[in-house]
Design goal:
Length: about 170
């Protein structure tokens, strides 16, 4: 590879790096976490058979939203997606308990939050936890990590690799 080709790849890599928007990825990831967790809780409380798909859905929603606005290529995007996905699964279980209690008592979820303490709801949420949940959560995290970073072409990966080797 001659110096002219290297310079072309360096410019491409710097362009890709400058397009990253970590702040946007953080914000959209947080919003996606809350929305996906709420959808997860409602789905799992309504249809018990769809638990694994709902967990994977959290990871997919978070990963795609972070990829779309963050346009990330560095590892920090995947790390944040992992944290958001685990948080989303935990919140999803909490929302599940809230929805189930609301349906059982024929009240609204807001009434459940007013009448029960968060600690009681969290304890009940933990009581549902099983080893199978870890498998579903692993799939969700895998989806989020895979989708959080933007896909790169071969020449883009080469350009990023050259910049990383350069130091």
């Amino acid at each position: 590879m001659n110096d002219e080709e290297k310079q072309k790849y360096y410019k491409l890599a710097h362009k890709l790096i400058s397009q990253q928007n970590f702040a946007a990825a953080l914000i959209v990831g947080a919003v996606a976490t809350l929305l996906a967790a709420a959808a997860y809780g409602i789905t799992v409380a309504t249809w018990a058979f769809s638990y694994g798909f709902a967990a994977a859905g959290i990871g997919i929603v978070i990963g795609l939203s972070m990829q779309f606005l963050g346009r990330g290529i560095s590892t920090k995007f995947a790390v944040v997606a992992t944290v958001y996905t685990i948080t989303g699964c935990v919140l999803g279980n909490l929302f599940r308990v809230i929805v189930e209690l609301a349906v059982a008592n024929a009240t609204s979820p807001i009434d459940v939050l007013r009448n029960d303490s968060i600690l009681v709801l969290a304890e009940r949420s933990v009581s549902y936890f099983s080893l199978v949940d870890l498998v579903y959560w692993f799939v969700a995290v895998f989806c989020a990590v895979f989708l959080a970073k933007r896909p790169l072409s071969r020449s883009e990966r080469l350009a990023i690799g050259l910049v990383e080797l350069r130091g």
